[in-house]
Amino acid sequence: MVKFNPEKLFVQYRHDITIMEPIIPRRYTLTHSDETGDLFLVIGNEYAWDKVNTKMRDEVLGEWISNGECIYFYVYLYIDQGEYNQNTSAKRNEIFRRELPLALTAIRYGDRLLFEKYPNLDNAPIIVNFISTYPQFARQENWGTFSNFSM
Questions:
Q1: Ordered alpha helix ranges (H), the chain
Q2: Which residues, 6 or more positions from 120, have their beta carbon under 8 angstroms from its beta carbon?
Q3: Do the Cβ atoms of 77 and 31 come closer than 8 Å?
Q4: pLDDT digits (tens, 9 = 90+) for 43-92
């Protein structure tokens, strides 16, 4: 995993989402450039599907969800939907797992003013959904809290 460099992160807000509100709905689309190492974070009330590379599907999607009592941060990682063989899906799973700490750090840093306004968000559980047709990769895991991923 590459160390997070704030100078390589570019943040854009969309659709009536501001630096401070709302928390729900608030969705994150994190993409990157393999050539430059730049990270692009779009924060909006919808995912930025126009920024997603439909051939690679290597984006990180996230959103705040509340069950009425607790708030959670859900992450969605697209491993496959049957278009890759098992070896390719295993490699994609490995890459997502290796790079996810960097992605979570980038999301936390990119939306740091929201976290400063609502410090309880640092303690919200991060639930990661690995989306795959292969049962060994299709998982939901608790990845701790953002307090583990702040700079």
A1: 86-110, 112-117
A2: 71
A3: no
A4: 999 999 999 988 888 999 999 999 988 999 999 999 999 899 999 999 99
Structure tokens of 147?
């307090």
pTM, whole model, 2 decimals? 0.94
Query: How many C-beta atoms surround the C-beta of residue 149 within 10 A?
Result: 21
119 token code pair? 């410090």
Name every residue whose Cβ is closer than 8 Å to that of residue 5 and which is 6 or more positions away in sequence.
37
Residue reference for tokens 């779009």: 42
AA identity, residue 63:
E
> In this structure, what token pair is assigned to residue 104?
């979570």
| Cα(107)–Cα(101) distance, integer angstroms | 10
- For the chain, how many residues are written? 151
Instruction: State whether the Cα torsion 14-16-18-24 is positive or negative.
Output: negative
* Distances in whole angstroms, Cα of residue 1 to Cα of each of 53, 102, 103, 109, 139: 21, 7, 10, 17, 22
